[in-house]
Structure formats: structure tokens, C-alpha cells
Amino acid sequence: MDTGSGAGRVLAGRYRLLGELGRGGMGVVWRARDEVLGREVAVKEVRAPAGLPDSDVRHLYARLEREGRAAARISHRNVVTVHDVAGDEGRPWIVMELVRGMSLADLLEAEGPLEPARAAHIGAEVLAALRGAHSVGVLHRDVKPGNVLIANDGRVVLSDFGIAMIEGSSALTATGQLVGSPEYLAPERALGHPPGPASDLWSLGVMLYAAVEGASPFRQDTPLSTLRAVVDAELPPPRRAGALAPVLDGLLRKDPAQRIGVDEAERMLRTAAAGGGRSAPPPGGGHTPTVAAHPAPGPPQPARGGRG
Questions:
Q1: I need a labelling partner for 269 at 20 to 30 A (CA). Which of 81, 157, 175, 253 fits?
Q2: How far, in Å, CA of 277 to CA of 186, rounded?
Q3: Of 84, 88, 142, 200, which residue is the catalytic one?
Q4: DSSP per-residue string spanning 181-235
């Protein structure tokens, strides 16, 4: 078996790495071939930072195994399917469905802010994924544009349950350690309170705000100042949200008990995606135009199954 670290390496005697799909702060996602079933898959590799103590490395790998267990519990068309957790040289590798398309973050970078109806459609699909996860006791805890994939056939898929928390299990995260992206973090989590389904709904609201406005509402120059804004700052009034504005208002309430629930959010998002609902005109008059609810697939993009 090739024990190299790059393309051509075979994991667990089965998965041949073909090339990188993307990388992030926590690792690399590879395109690979399952030589037993003869299909292409995505494989997530987590690379421990150089110099990390052995205990922290074990913690990191345990977290990755937990991602596989958490995501494998979810069977939903809007969630990346986990096929296997492959052990190789003492490390777990997550083997996932290969989604051919691009992330919402890539889409926003390429096209700029979305029209409200298109954002609402994507939001409704992500909400359906969250409903599926929550129904089996799994919180995502890192809903953001980089973790939402838009397949070339238009399917919207939520990926990367790497910091998901299974209800009833002991948290691996050390006390006080921040997990998640600060600008998408719910206020109760920034204050150190236990997360719940409403925390994922807040993050969905921030993501939708960023999708139509071009920037997340509470982003500041530093993570600490961003967290302060999440907890204390008023929501900047959206200017381009149109029919999506009432959904943002309902999801982005500081008190989780005051946020709208999944059922109401889904109804409002589906209505906005269809071009209906109450439209809040942007400052200066006029209405924000809407487009078809389903995102156009666009030209073929590099395939991926998740984010590193």
C-alpha cells in the first residue's frame, strides 16, 4: 500500500486519493475512488497542527470520529451522506458522498449578494437539513456559507458536522473553548450557555442575512469584538432582504426563547422563495426584485463533499 500523504495513497486498503477538492483550517477534503464499490467519494482528512501535544491530537481525532458517527445518523437528501469512517495509520478519515458543485461561500464570492427568493430557497433547504439532524438529536453548531453546498443539479446540501454535538453525549470541547465561527455564533453560545436547536436557527438567520446583504451583520475586526457585537449590538436593518426581512427578524432574536421555530421559519421561507410574503422595501423606496426560487446550477464546478 502506498503510505504517502498525497494523491495515489490508498486508505484502509480501499480508498485511493485522486486529488484535493479543498482545504481549510482543520484539514483537507480529497476526491477519492472506492476501489471495492467502484465509485468516487469525498474523503475528509484532519491534519493535527505541528507541535500539538499528543493528548490534543487524540482529542482532535476523537472529534473527527464523532463527526462521522453524528452525520451517519442523519438520512436526508439535504445532508451529505457519510459512507464510512476509515482508520488508517491511527487516524480516522471520513468517507462521504461526493457532491459536484460549489459552496454557498463560493457562490457569493463569484456572484455577489443573492436575490431574496433565491436565498430563501437555499435557506428552506438548509432548514430541512437541520430538521432532519435535530430529529435524531444532532446539532450542527457551525451553519455558515462555507458548509452549504449547491450541487450542479440544484440540490442544496449541508455538510461538515465536525463540531456537531450529539444530545446526551459528553462534550469533548474543553470548558471555555470556542467552537464555531464567531460571526455565526448564537448569543447564548457566546455567553457560554448550552446550545440547542434554536442556536442553529440563529446561525441560519445570520447566513441568510449575509447571503442577501453581502456581509454578516455582526462581523467586526477581531473575534472578540465580533462576539461582543453578537451579544450586545442591535441587528443592522437589512436593506436588500425584501420578503425575507420578516424571517431574518424572527430568526435573529437575541433570546432563543423568542426566536421563531422550525415550522414557522419553513413556512415563511417557502413563501418568500415562491416570491410571496410581506416585502420590506429598502431605504429610499422601491422594492427589492426577486428571481426564481430554484438556483440555477450554472457551469460544472469542482466536485466536493465537504469543507476542510
A1: 81
A2: 26
A3: 142
A4: -GGG--HHHHTTPPP-HHHHHHHHHHHHHHHHHSS-TT--SSHHHHHHHHHHSPP
In terms of Cα–Cα distance, which of 39, 151, 159 is closest to 100? 151
pLDDT tens digits for range 139-181: 998 999 999 999 999 999 999 876 666 665 544 444 344 556 8
At 91-111, the pLDDT tens digits run 888 899 999 999 999 999 999
In sequence order, what DSSP letters do the residues of 287-299 get, joined into one string?
------SSPP--S
Task: Report the mean per-residue pLDDT for the chain.
Answer: 83
Which domains does the chain carry?
Answer: 10-98 (3.30.200.20), 100-303 (1.10.510.10)
What's the predicted TM-score (pTM) here? 0.81
CB 210 within 8 A of CB 145: yes
Alpha carbon distance 266, 142 (integer Å): 19
Tens digit of each residue's pLDDT (9 = 90 or more) over 206-238: 999 999 999 999 999 999 999 999 999 999 999
- In the chain, the percentage of residues whose pLDDT exceeds 90 is 61
Determine the Cα–Cα distance for residues 146 and 23; give it in Å rounded to an integer.
11
Q: What is the dihedral of CA 263, 269, 273, 274, to 10 degrees?
A: 50
Is residue 255 among the annotated active site residues?
Answer: no
Question: Is the pLDDT confidence value at 279 over 80?
Answer: no
170: exposed, middle or buried (Cβ count in 10 Å: 0-12, 13-18, 19+): exposed
